[in-house]
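Hey team,

Filing this mostly as a record. A colleague (T.K.) asked me to run one chain through the structure pipeline before their review meeting, and I want the input and output archived in the tracker in case anyone asks later how it was produced. No errors, nothing strange. Just documentation.

Input sequence:
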Amino acid sequence: AQMLVVALLIRWAGGVRVELDPAHGWAVLAYGAGSFLAVAVLEELLFRGFVFQRLVDGLGAPAALLLMAALFAAAHLGNPGMEGSTVVTATLDNGLGALLLGLAYLRTGSLALPMGIHFGWNWTQGSLLGFDVSGQAQAGWLLPHLLDKPQWLSGGAFGPEASVFAVAVDTVAVILLWRWKGTRHQPRTQAGPAAAAA
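Output structure:
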């Protein structure tokens, strides 16, 4: 849903024209699903897995979130299409995305939600809409044609995640997750004889 909103805002602002890709097919969606699922699982294990969870225990959630967001954004700095204004918007959005995914873990106590968000964002962006994903060209169900607009608006060759619209959408999502109490359950303590006596 987030990526669809970003793409619609870019189209509304005149940054892209989209048509059905003549070479589209179910195989494109299926192949993209497998590829992007693997990416989501790997990156979430790396950035929201053991290291992040130990940082939360040792430094506290705010520091762990900010540190891993900085590392996640830095890990994408060498990607194709990182040039000009894209460096600023893509880095900012990758950092916000990492905050969002970290909060998704903290609010649920599970990697399932961050993996699902990560997968859905990339698969919708690449396999469904046909945009580049973090600078990597994708074959999609649709074929986007970037129009003569600044890269900060359309995302340029890096993809819509380098657009100011992605920054805005991710900012709203981070605020919503920050305010959400989550579904993480506190462990129950068993009332034994000592507890009953107290």
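Quick notes for T.K.: Residues 85-108 form the longest helix (24 residues). The chain has a mean pLDDT of 89.
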